[in-house]
Amino acid sequence: MSGKQSGLYTVVANKPIGDDIFRLAVAWKNAPPGAGQFFLIKSGRSSVFLGRPISVAHYDGSAVHFLIMKIGTGTKELAETRAGETVFMIGPLGNGWSDFFDRAPQNGKPIALVSGGLGCAPLLYFAEELAVRSSPSFHFYAGFSTASPELTGTIASLPIPPQKLIVTTDDGSDGEKGVVTDVINAEAYAAVFSCGTTAMLKAVAAACAKKGTPCFISAENHMACGVGACLGCVVKTVSGNKRCCADGPVFNAREVIFA
Ligand code: FES
Prior knowledge:
Layout: E1 5-16, E2 21-27, E3 38-43, E4 52-55, E5 58-59, E6 63-69, H1 73-79, E7 86-93, H2 98-103, E8 111-116, H3 120-132, E9 138-144, H4 149-156, E10 164-169, E11 176-177, H5 180-183, E12 192-195, H6 198-211, E13 215-218, E14 234-237, E15 240-243, E16 250-252
The structure holds FE2/S2 (inorganic) cluster.
């Protein structure tokens, strides 16, 4: 895992993979980021002050890849950057999935990766790391509001694909109609790793707690500074307030106090 760096980095590729989602690849010559870590990113000629926190979805040995949704000025500017242009990045930041994975029980059961929407991004990179570690088999639960063939295809085409890919959509346009927590049997897994909205994470954590299954979540709290200085991203835990950006974004769900 590399130490935090900052500066202008060259865009290698940028292409849309859906209506409002794009894949941005940025040259990265430093040590690989850890799965679950994120960068603060903004266009090299951005009008915004703060970069947006974006999780790493893939690292190909020379570039970090991000899956980004266009939801504001900063991300719209990023969507317009072209290969050869620059983005300003700070990172990699935060902890990652690895420490938690190492502490999870190895009991022969598979593990479950459970995502909501673009929460699949940090889990995609985690799945790649699992493959390198020759880890137990994993099942991938991906919930979307509506069919997202590009993201579903990205999960299905992981170098080592999940043994089971279970898709749910709110509108029933792909997979099961409903939400991931309707279909997951937490008892079947050694541990569950999840990223998505707070409401989804709360439901996943509750389903796991009911069955005694360890659960680790990547929180998607709003962030400002992204480096632990502003206390703008507080996650309430049983051991006090934690900073999502610096103490997380991955937490043991058992320790998180959901609103
Ligand atoms: S975003 Fe400033 S402390 Fe986390």
